[in-house]
Amino acid sequence: MKFKIFDYIVVGGGIVGASTAYKLRIKFPKATVLVVEKEPQSSLHQTGRNSGVIHSGLYYTPGSLKAKTCINGYHQLLKFCYEESIDYEICGKLVVPKNELELKKLESIAKRGLENGLEGIRFVDRSEVKKMEPYILSTTALYVPQTGIVDYVGMTKRLIAIAVESKGSFRTNAKVVDMGTTSSKPFIRLSNDENVYSEKIIFCAGLQSDRLAKLDGLTEDIQIVPFRGDYYQLKNESRYKVKNLIYPVPNPDFPFLGVHFTRMIDGSAECGPNAVFSFSREGYNRTSFNLRDSWSSLSFEGTRRLFATNWRFGLKEYELAFLKNKYLAELRKIMPNLEASDLVRGRSGIRAQALDKKGNLVDDFVIKKGQIGIHVLNAPSPAATASLAIADEIISYL
Q: Could you list the residue range(s) of the whole structural domain that residue 319 is in?
């Protein structure tokens, strides 16, 4: 059996793992760093399947790890992308209320943004809305100038390249199948029958994070329950209808922002995503099914409680997944003149959302230390924006 010793091992080639490996290289320039990824390349799951938005920190509870790392990570991300020539743009966004009740919620969200240190956020009237987004019909909206778009895949590749270019290695097609200790030194066993050893192992495994944590002896107080988000894309000839980013007022009971319009860094424009329970953690088709994943989720007490109390919300989201006219009707609440002919089915992504036994969606980031290593157990949006700051938090556990 092959084996090798490293100073640090990072499991997961998404943006959180890549940022962690990068920060280890910066802090410990002489250390040997190994990044392990089970796929043929980095960013094939959440990192490469999100909306590419640089979040400003508008929505998050002041003082929470999400709020702190989002604001900090935002500034670190801009600096990194500027220095490393990664495509990004701070274009701003509009948050559009659909009625008076949502306007009151939006006023509370604006106050929260100010508490989190955002600058320049302000309400704009109908004429300003029309100047910013001509196809939006609204008497008012919240303008958030600090929001942007970025190439997260390119950023992740560059982070890994810097992390391993000296005294490092990036292993792909290398799934973690076991872990343990030998002579008091922790190790992980990879799918190629290789053991790699380190006293400092960090797991940033996204959709598989709870399973690796279980191998490390951590309790099952929370579990990853996957939620798929389906996107539509605006046809090339309809891109002009979206200039930048247009969001609805989110439902405060759920950590999902609702279907929105996003201009991507490549110039294309997407609409979405919805949020439906997925029967497969890594199945990106609307009918994907994995028996192990389905049993894991449906046998978990928290999932059953979530379904029992929120079945109406879930049913509505499933309608959006399979019925284009329902999806269009939701989008028309913000852009009334949008036509079915403007839209083509786009990609899907899956959010690794932690759920507790009581059926509560875990809102904040969760990092725990096991016997073998440190585990990132919940890192949904805005984890990509916050990734460099999350890495600082992870390293503080070493």
A: 92-147+223-356
Backbone φ and ψ for 57, nearest 5 degrees, come out as 100, 25
Is there a contact between 353 and 221 (Cβ–Cβ < 8 Å)?
Answer: no
- Tell me the CATH number at 135: 3.30.9.10
Report d(CA 152, CA 44) in Å as an integer. Answer: 11
Residue with token string 């959006």: 320
Residue 302 located in a structural domain:
yes
Cβ(281)–Cβ(293) under 8 Å?
Answer: yes
Nearest alpha carbon to residue 201 among 1, 20, 15, 39 = 20
Domain check: are 34 and 159 in the same one?
Answer: yes
Q: Long-range contacts: 114-121, Cβ < 8 Å, 24+? A: 115/62, 116/57, 116/58, 116/60, 116/62, 116/67, 116/70, 116/71, 117/57, 117/71, 118/56, 118/57, 118/58, 118/71, 118/144, 118/146, 119/145, 119/146, 120/145, 120/146, 121/58, 121/145, 121/146
Write down the pTM of the prediction.
0.95
Task: Using DSSP, state whether 53 is helix, strand or coil.
Answer: strand
Q: What is the pLDDT of residues 224-279, one digit of tens each?
A: 999 999 999 999 999 999 999 999 998 866 667 788 999 999 999 999 999 999 99
Please give the C-alpha separations between residue 210 and each of 38, 217, 219, 296, in angstroms, as whole numbers: 16, 11, 9, 11
188-220 burial by CB neighbour count: b if 16+ within 10 A, else e? Answer: bbbeeebbbbbebbbbbbbbbbbebbebbebee
Q: Please tell me the total count of domains within the chain.
A: 2
Mean pLDDT, the chain, rounded, equals: 94
What does the pLDDT read at residue 1? 60
Among residues of the chain, what percentage have pLDDT more than 90? Answer: 89
Dihedral in degrees, nearest 10, Cα atoms 236, 241, 244, 249: -120
